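Encode chain A's predicted structure.
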Amino acid sequence: MFVSGAGAMAVAAALKPESAAAYLSYGPPVKFNWDEVVSWANDMAREPYMPKGPSDRDVIQQIDFDAYQQIKYRPDAAIWPAKDSYPVELFHVGKYFMEPVRVFVVNDGLSREVQYNSELFSYGRADFARALPPDTGFAGFRVMRGANDPDWIAFLGASYFRTTGETRQYGLSTRGLALNIGLSREEEFPRFTNFWIEPLGTPEGIMIYALLESPSVTGAYRIKAVRGQGVVTEVEAVINARTDVERLGVAPLTSMFWYGKNNRGHGMDWRPEIHDSDGLAIWTGSDERIWRPLSNPPVTKVSAFADNNVKGFGLLQRERDFKAYEDDGVFYNRRPSVWIEPIGEWGEGAVQLLEIPTDDETKDNIGVYWVPKEPFTTGKRVNLHYKIYWRNDSPFPHPNGRVAATRLGAGGIPGGKRREGVTKYVIDYEGGVLGELTNDDNVKLKVSVSKGQFDAVAAYRVVDTPYWRAIFDYTPEGKETGVLRAYLDQNGKALTETWIYQHVVG
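Encoded structure for chain A:
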């Protein structure tokens, strides 16, 4: 499939080279369409998984982190270098990106494979990598904003991809699919093995077609990436089960949370906060808005939020003040928020949040994904359709108040005797009508807990601000984990989204 057939060379003249660089070369043209990618994925699902590794693994193993930083794609070899399109650059393989991918360009219904050539790269002190053979392939690709401008979307490693959103700053990533994530068994990482890229005229952007493979699944993906206010990537996918999948993670997001206002004691660092995202937001099928602050638990935790036809969910970075981070190197205040909007009805299932302990900022320890209730067993096929918004905030803001900050401290009254084993929770809310209300307007904090007890409940407007502050003390039940819920209410009407937190003892 997708190899040169009879008559293919007859249409070669219809294709113009995308670059004048002599070292950027292509295979023969082949007719291409989306239905062919779907058919290929369907056919492969009936065959055993046959991974195709690199031909010179020993050399690639030597391309460690330092060596990889030396290898640069030559800008003058960019695909589509014209001023009216987005140039595309290719990633070199390396120790942490061992498995090669094939990259094809698509124009007027014809595709051609980009041929690997060491002359496409400069190697610096990693010149030994020039010895790799012509069938090496690439690790992925990135799309540049323009000539001499940085990239705005990149595909690199397994099925990971990410964009820079509104602030030209990368942060969290998304994946094509997550398999058996958050289980005691080893997670399976499906990977994109083939890409077909096609420029979009209007709106400005790029269309990416991809073939996904793993021992358990095959999939065909069509991803439309468009720049505007932030970036929107619309994903259509057809997934086939080669074998039974214990947990299918749809529209997975991957982020990092080391410490923030709610767990400042975890951070042995001079910066006040370090995280790519600070909370999980969910818009349920019943129209409830939920905010779950992220945490860095002592052991791996999976939280599930059951729903029917969820309207959206995402990992957001709500704290945008530079002073909250004081980081002028990687700018955590600029990290994009990412929102998933299902297209069509997704039925019953759950948004799951995976939190893994971490002691630094270099490890992604947060995962969020949708798990359908219906099992994904051998021979089944599922069609997925959703949009991913890469913005500074959710594209569908809650009309009522939202959580601005969560803080924890010792229970009791400052200056008085502290209550052993009791935690004080302080939640700040903003937005909606909150800025118009006063302490005489019967605003109350509604609290419930799954285990344990709470008391010392209060809610009031913070002096000289539009913020409202909610406070309560929580006493856990032994070593049991408790789930806490809270929102502001006025005369039986919710004024804010629902704050949910998992209190872990120890």
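The radius of gyration is 25 Å.
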